[in-house]
Design a protein that fits this description.
The protein is an alpha+beta fold and 266 residues long. It has helices spanning 2-24, 230-253; strands at residues 49-50, 56-62, 67-73, 77-86, 94-101, 107-108, 116-119, 125-131, 149-158, 168-179. Helix 1 (2-24) runs antiparallel to helix 2.
Length: 266
């Protein structure tokens, strides 16, 4: 009976720990309805169209334009950016490229995915994808690790022939994230997320200058405070299981004690 109670308690604690871990591995929900997604793109980092994760942003442009969007990504998320470009009926072979930059405008390499693809002559559309590395709470200054804040998406065409320059195209871009959770937790955190305007002190108007305007987009539940991750749960469960294993081992090895027919001191 004692062994049964010990095993039941261990399974209960393991089940409680598995719940947040399962939630971490599920894709993040849409941030808002697609009806609020931007219908045009910016032409530079400063004019990038802001979109939430889970939205499908669209834009009509001309072949040869640089198209920019931005979205927020928080600690523990692994962003995936996908783009679809609808091409005109008649065009030569084109190479399209999807680039992602972090809040410091550092180019972030794709963990996997086809970020550069060739659209052969007459192809009606081309699809691109880039899965970034997991966003970290903190990083060394010399490292190029993804950090929480605004991420910029740039979509453009390479080696374009003069005959195709200016032809109309339509682009769709979507950003989603998978929550990795405590598996990607690190010690330390940024003081502030890397969003536009964060380096400029905001406050009341001084000398005729208006205060800085920060990015208008952020995760639904705000930026992570960095004090909690599922790693705490697994650490606590490991300690409990180790204690239960020690109690069980002692119960199995201590024996039944002195038989009643053996006198004391014998």
């Amino acid at each position: 009976m004692r062994a049964t109670r010990v095993l039941s308690a261990a399974l209960l604690m393991l089940g409680l720990a598995a719940a947040p871990a399962a939630a971490d591995s599920s894709p993040s929900p849409s941030a808002s309805a697609d009806g609020k997604a931007p219908t045009q793109a910016g032409t530079s980092f400063r004019t990038a169209a802001e979109m939430e994760q889970g939205q499908t942003a669209t834009a009509s442009a001309s072949t040869g334009d640089y198209l920019y969007w931005s979205f927020p990504a928080d600690t523990g998320q692994r962003p995936t950016v996908k783009a679809t470009v609808e091409l005109p009926g008649s065009h030569a072979a084109q190479t399209w490229q999807l680039d992602v930059y972090d809040g410091l405008r550092r180019h972030q390499s794709c963990q996997y995915g086809a970020a550069t693809r060739v659209a052969e002559q007459g192809t009606s559309s081309v699809e691109l994808a880039c899965v970034l590395r997991t966003v970290r709470a903190w990083s060394e200054p010399w490292a190029n690790d993804p950090l929480p804040g605004t991420y910029y998406v740039r979509l453009t065409v390479l080696d374009l022939g003069s005959a195709d320059l200016g032809l109309p195209v339509r682009a769709e871009v979507r950003a989603d994230s998978r929550n990795i959770g405590g598996a990607a937790a690190v010690d330390g955190s940024l003081g502030k997320p890397l969003v536009p305007g964060i380096a400029v002190e905001s406050g009341t108007e001084k000398d005729g200058e208006k205060p800085a305007v920060l990015s208008a987009i952020e995760p639904d539940d705000g930026w992570s405070s960095q004090w909690w991750s599922s790693r705490w749960v697994w650490t606590a469960v490991g300690g409990v299981l180790a204690a239960l294993a020690g109690i069980g081992g002692y119960a199995l090895t201590r024996g039944r004690g002195r038989p009643p027919y053996v006198p004391p001191g014998a």
